[in-house]
Design goal:
Elements (H helix, E strand, L loop, with lengths): L2 H11 L10 H12 L20 H5 L17 H7 L18 H12 L30 H13 L9 H13 L5 H13 L1 H13 L2 H15 L16 H12 L4 H10 L8 H6 L16 H21 L18 H11 L13 E4 L5 H15 L8 E3 L4 E4 L4 E4 L5 E4 L7 E7 L4 E9 L18 E2 L1 E7 L5 E4 L1 E6 L21 E2 L11 E12 L5 E7 L11 E7 L4 H7 L4 H12 L4 E4 L12 E4 L7 E5 L18 H8 L6 H15 L20 H13 L4 H9 L12 H6 L16 H12 L19 E2 L7 E2 L24 H5 L18 H9 L1 H17 L3 H13 L5 H19 L2 H8 L8 H17 L3 H4 L2
Antiparallel strand pairs: 1-16, 2-15, 3-6, 4-5, 5-15, 6-14, 7-13, 7-15, 8-12, 9-10, 9-14, 11-13, 17-18, 19-20
Amino acid sequence: MSRVLRHLLLLSLGSGSLAADISFNFQIRPILSKNCIGCHGPDPGDRKADLRLDTFAGVTNPESGDAVIIPGKPEESLFMERVLTDDPDDVMPPPEHGHKLSAEQIALLEQWIREGAEYETHWSFAPVANPEPPAVASSAWPQNEVDHFVLAQLEKLGLAPTAPANPVELLRRLALDLTGLPPTLAEVSTFKEAYRENPQQAVAEAADRLLASPAYGEHWASMWLDIARYADTVGYSGDEHRDIWPWRDWVIKAYNDNMPYDQFIIEQVAGDLLPQASEQQKLATAFHRLTLNNNEGGTNDEEFRTIAVKDRLSTTVNSTMGLTVRCAECHTHKYDPISHEEYYQLYAFFNQTADSDKRDDRPRMPVMPFGHEEKTREIKARIAELETQVDAHKPWQVLTFDQMEGTDGVVLQSQDDGSVLASGPNPDYPTYRLSAPAPAGPVSALRLELIPDVSHNEFVGRASGGAVVLTHVRLLEKKADGTQEWHRFSKAVADHSQPNHDISKVIGEKPEKYGWAVKHDKEGLRARRTAVLELASPVTLAPDSRLEVELVFEGPWVRTSAGRVRLATTAVSEPAKKFTENTLNPIERQIAELKKELPQPIRVPVTEDLPADKQRETHLMTRGSFMQLGQKVSPALPKAFGELPADAPRNRLGVAQWLVAADNPLTPRVAVNRYWARLFGIGIVETEEDFGMQGTLPSHPDLLDWLAHRFVETGWDQKALLKLLVTSAAYQQGSAATPDRLEKDPRNIYLSRGPRFRLTAEVVRDQALAVSGLLNRELYGEPVYPPTPIKRFANAFLGDTIWVESEGPDRYRRAIYTYLKRSNPHPLFETFDMASRDVCVLRRFRTNTPLQSFMTLNDVVFVEAAQALARTMKKSSDNLEEQIQEGFRQVLLTEGTSSQVDALRALYEETLPTYQNNRDEAHQLAGTVPEPVSDEEAAEVAALTVVANVMLNLDAFLCK
């Protein structure tokens, strides 16, 4: 009898506990993936013995007949011989790899081969099924379909569900999960009453209310900011500021508006390519611009551009499909079906964006932030009212040009405000000729305004950097009788000129080479610039004549023409002097001041593709290096994932549509798993970031598919999905763990009890501010700078950055609005496991360290929260026990036990004398938040602050 046969006989004697039917995906693939595929997988460059074990063809080798597995005959299969041998030179896996198959694993492999060695499509790549919820023995427990799947697993384990959580615990869990904020005492009271009448209806109504709260979007947006690697700086050693926070507000609004998830993905991946894309759809593409920018001198822009494109590809696929495509950047993926060539074919879709690692972050788009609509309406209404009061005979009369000509193909178009916009070609040295009916009455001067425009990147000029160099201005009167007359300027003034490029240079008889130029300051170029050109003497234009203005741009630099201009005339005397002195009448001055108060757009980096004639070629990059280009490739999907539909565009929009297509099984599975993980603490697939061969298997595969199918069927409705999950009996269980449950379900993967785990960094902070009454619930807005122990951040070559703490209400805004500097995130967030924002992160890992307690005891925000809570406790009663109970009600929404109250009373009584004997220390600890206290109250408030500080550090407070 052969050694292999003898081993197999022994295995068969002990295999009574093995499954009747072997599942390749759930029993065999994990063994091969962990122990074999790294050396015998898809990557030909690292494949040993030219043997593939990840495909049926690879193990049976039908072409050569040199099979390592003979289906149905494990005793004749070389595979089993190498697994079972005792020879250290032949045994697989090799001893030096540190892996050794267990007897059970070997028995499974033997049974699999005996049953035919059938291979299956990886479970996550298979179409989403729509299984029927299973029947369960305890049919009274389920509240919805989710519970049938959960209970079926529990019954297999011999476990029963835990009794429901009490109403206070349940509402707190709901509020923290859906909004990131605790409920108020009034909300608790209302919920308890409703829960007594009809528990399930009370939960459903509370869920609806919380999902409709603006706080919902702020809370759930934080999850997406991790994924999108959102930060307020560009990263790398310089880590300079980047204005991209309007995109963060877009995400918050998208969640609050319950934007369908498929639309949410499409707009971020390719909103700019949608037909008639709106400003908000273009803003959504800032998702791609959250990549790092290297502004250090001497770096290669192309190198870091390609790094950014690879990051976009990786982030897009990982965030939606849960696959680690970047493993194929340097070689074929060792585990998942993505070859080196296919990686760069997919990369080609993202390789046509116009950004190029430039310091100015172009292309950028001006965006009016959310939340300013009412203020803008009020100011504009006031301006309109004042404008009606301005003297009808305004000093300046805007010329209405009806004939416009630009040389060399420049297109000139009149705008509603009387300005003229240039578009089309941008030649080296153009001239603009603008003709309008002559104004009535005398003319003493011409006013020229250079106006920033969106079409020119909000610059005043058409040059790539926005500069304007105007070399000559001429004014021609064309009379009705066919004669014409040039009118000469004698004086010119401007509100801004670049040194040696004064406005006076444009009014000579012949143009001067250097002309009038605006300063090469990026922000200055975005400000409106005005010049007044005074005539030698006022002229009265002939009736029915026309006035022609000629603007010549023939400076020392090419393509420096104006993007948008407006011209006006006046009859006032000494117009240049009055312009210099800014002698506006009072109403006009008031209008000017109001215009300064109008909210201004923020210039946000967005995604645009290059014009068709400037599209890049894409090549393989040998070992991932941009300097070692291989063969040219065209955009395409990896073969394992099919092809784009025939009518889909071959660009990012086509990829975006494919990501959320009905036949893409990964996107809905990954999405519902992510929501499950946020509510229950661990995903149905624990490796949220990896649904590929190396990822963990789903604990409830049928439930995952049922949820994914329903998610798509209900229109990718994110709020509906969350409501379904939180109204399940599984979610509403109490969180107490019995020894039996801890033994059979130690990590609560199978939901034998309700979820209980520490809150996220943002919620830890926001909850403390909320219960203390300090939280500023203002929605949207620019980043804020709450207190931090680190006031100065060192940059490698750009000097230090000073953290200037916000004052007033901004100090207590929600954590999502905190300025996030990539190289130095706020210590509180870093300590409580906020993800790095350098790369896409789908799953935060919770840690428990002494630093976390140190932070919640001593960080300024928690001390100030304790100070404010102490004042609430002091005002509630003159009785110490009642004050302590008020603290418990605010913090835990219920009263403390007698032992808890006794312990805190003892702490108060121990602490009070210290502060009674030291007024300065008492005032220092009592603080001034939200208001100072009197000398008489200082010691008591200080002692209560110590008590409140302890309450804010209770485990029950820091966990849900």
